[in-house]
């Protein structure tokens, strides 16, 4: 009896060959893509797209002062040293010792030694894709956790970038 009960639950060949009735999908005829482009595109147009880079806008700097995150400066500002855009920061805390040098006018050369392979990789990628030179040396308590080293390297790189940017003359936003 038990065997026949199991067999009655299994599908037979005739039930497998019967077509199942599937729900019919509804198709909407609304246009998801506009039929007309409102912005000129120089690729599809014979009229070139001209941009005015001479427009000046005044903005208030949003960055924090260099000493606000506990880092000390070791070089002069870009204004005093001429046209080179180089920033150098050393950050020493209870947990870490970080040294960062950045050259914004470099070629994308990276030299990172933090003791954290993924952080080294990300710093290398940042430098190569940003086309600036980045030199980072960091030691920290990575035997406990790499959080402090990650955090202090990020703060030092940001501070060095802030220093290297200087007064930001000649930098235009993409519009």
UniProtKB/TrEMBL annotation:
Biased composition (Polar residues): 7-17, 66-84
Pfam family, one: IGPD
Matching SUPFAM superfamilies: Ribosomal protein S5 domain 2-like (SSF54211)
EC code(s) of this entry: 4.2.1.19
Keywords: Amino-acid biosynthesis, Histidine biosynthesis, Lyase
InterPro entries xrefs: IGPD_sf, ImidazoleglycerolP_deHydtase, ImidazoleglycerP_deHydtase_CS, Ribosomal_Su5_D2-typ_SF
Reaction equation(s) it catalyzes: D-erythro-1-(imidazol-4-yl)glycerol 3-phosphate = 3-(imidazol-4-yl)-2-oxopropyl phosphate + H2O
GO biological process terms on file: L-histidine biosynthetic process
Region of interest (Disordered), ranges: 1-28, 63-84
Domain of life: Eukaryota
UniProt pathway annotation: Amino-acid biosynthesis; L-histidine biosynthesis; L-histidine from 5-phospho-alpha-D-ribose 1-diphosphate: step 6/9
UniProt-recorded name of the protein: imidazoleglycerol-phosphate dehydratase
Family membership: Belongs to the imidazoleglycerol-phosphate dehydratase family.
Gene3D superfamilies: Imidazole glycerol phosphate dehydratase, domain 1
């Amino acid at each position: 009896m038990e065997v026949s009960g199991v067999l009655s639950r299994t599908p037979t060949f005739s039930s497998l060959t019967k077509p199942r009735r599937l729900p019919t999908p509804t198709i909407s005829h609304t246009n998801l893509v506009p039929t007309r482009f409102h912005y000129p595109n120089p690729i599809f147009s014979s009229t070139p797209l001209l941009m005015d880079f001479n427009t000046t806008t005044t903005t208030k700097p949003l960055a924090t002062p260099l000493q606000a995150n506990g880092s000390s400066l070791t070089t002069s500002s870009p204004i005093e040293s001429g046209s080179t855009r180089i920033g150098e920061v050393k950050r020493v805390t209870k947990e870490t010792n970080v040294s960062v040098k950045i050259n914004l006018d470099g070629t994308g050369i990276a030299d990172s030694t933090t003791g954290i392979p993924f952080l080294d990789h990300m710093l290398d990628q940042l430098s190569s894709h940003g086309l600036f030179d980045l030199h980072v040396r960091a030691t920290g308590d990575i035997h406990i956790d790499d959080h402090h080293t990650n955090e202090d390297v990020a703060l030092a790189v940001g501070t060095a970038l802030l220093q290297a940017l200087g007064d930001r003359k000649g930098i235009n936003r993409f519009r």
